[in-house]
Design brief:
Helix content is 59%, strand content 4%. The protein is mainly alpha-helical. It folds into 2 domains: 51-138, no CATH class; 150-353, no CATH class. It has a 3-stranded antiparallel β-sheet. The protein has a two-stranded antiparallel sheet with strand order 4-5. It is elongated.
């Protein structure tokens, strides 16, 4: 047995295994010691832009608790910055523009732009262009939530909008039957109602304002659109007279038919349906037919005014005698004083028509007249 232990066939494997286990044991002990005392940890780093990231977090936590008007400003700012970025890195600009157009929160879009700004902080040309945008933004005057059209900031205007919203179905019905754009009909309604609101303060305080209803005239003019009796009679007559320059065609002849036959009954029925406090359908119908008759007259004379809401409203206000087709029609009509500031009826209609007010209820049609003929 002693010979066996002393032989090289035993010694070589034995010592090889012994040293191997010793070396393995050393490495295990060394590894444990290194882990225990943190010798294996990498040193790590604090990003050079850490302060910037914190500033952005603080900025968007506070600055974005703002009203909708300021948010619109932010979207404009984003567009300007995207335009600048497009001159340097079109691909990044396209990515951000796609997000903006997709309806993303302005918060996210501006954060995307801020990330680009940080990356390009050494690009002096780009930073100069961005600084100019920010400088111009700071120099801008204080933003107001009021309308640029002063008369739309009065209490009566808010009441009017709530009141006319109740008549949307009636106005839409008339628009579809006559082919006269609903927004154009409302443009004439606006001038008449604002005039009454402003001149009838007591009536406004007592029932127009509290009830959010339109004022129905019942003396010299009638209904919510202020149709005079003789004008109403002319509108009816021109509908049925193929020889009239205001004739609209056989399909419109029966729009304003009466139930009664004799003059007295017809006269009473006319006034009753125009002054109905609960249903303003005929006020809108007479207004729409009149506007279309004006459009047809001027078109036949070679002076189309279908794209001139201010002229159509002026004619609606002044009536048939003043409707004389020509190349240079004038905007005007009655003078309406709103808190002592004078406006013409035509100007009021024009400003409303293109203001964007009530656009959700009465949008632009592809044509102001007969847009539904192709349907």
């Amino acid at each position: 047995m002693k010979k066996l232990f002393k032989s090289k066939w035993f010694k070589i494997p034995y010592y090889t295994l012994l040293y191997a286990f010793a070396i393995a044991g050393f490495f295990l002990i060394a590894s444990y010691t290194a882990i225990k005392f943190g010798f294996t940890k990498e040193s790590g780093m604090v990003d050079a832009n850490n302060r910037y990231f914190q500033e952005m977090q603080d900025k968007y936590n506070q600055d974005f608790k703002v009203d909708s008007v300021t948010m619109v400003q932010k979207r404009y700012e984003a567009m300007e910055r995207i335009i600048v970025l497009n001159e340097y890195y079109p691909q990044n600009a396209q990515y951000i523009l796609s997000v903006l157009q997709d309806g993303a929160d302005s918060y996210e879009v501006l954060r995307m732009l801020d990330a680009v700004d940080l990356q390009l902080k050494e690009n002096k040309s780009y930073q100069k262009a961005i600084s100019k945008i920010r400088f111009n933004s700071k120099q801008a005057k204080e933003v107001t939530t009021l309308s640029a059209f002063e008369w739309m900031n009065i209490a009566e205007w808010k009441t009017f909008k709530e009141a006319v919203a109740k008549d949307k179905k009636l106005i839409d019905s008339v628009a579809n039957q006559t082919g006269v754009e609903g927004r154009l009909i409302v443009s004439c309604l606006v001038g008449e109602q604002i005039r009454l609101f402003n001149s009838s303060r007591e009536a406004y305080k007592k029932w127009i304002g509290p009830l959010k209803v339109l004022s129905v005239e019942s003396q010299f003019s009638f209904g919510v659109t202020g149709i005079k009796e003789h004008t109403a009679k002319n509108i009816e007559s021109h509908l049925k007279n193929p020889n009239s320059i205001f004739y609209l065609g056989p399909q419109y002849e029966h729009l304003l038919n009466f139930k009664g036959q004799d003059t007295a009954t017809v006269n009473k029925e006319r006034i009753d349906r125009l002054t109905d406090f609960h249903n303003h359908y005929y006020s809108y119908m007479y207004a729409a037919v009149f506007l279309k008759q004006m459009k047809v007259q001027w078109e036949k004379a070679g002076f189309p005014i279908d794209k001139r809401p201010e002229i159509l409203a002026t004619l609606f206000n002044v009536g048939y005698p003043q409707s004389k087709p020509k190349s240079n029609p004038r905007v005007g009509g009655s003078t309406i004083k709103i808190y002592e500031k004078p406006y013409s009826f035509g100007a009021i209609a024009y400003q409303f028509y293109y203001s964007g007010e009530l656009f959700d209820l009465f949008p632009f049609e592809k044509k102001k007249f007969d847009w539904n003929e192709d349907a």
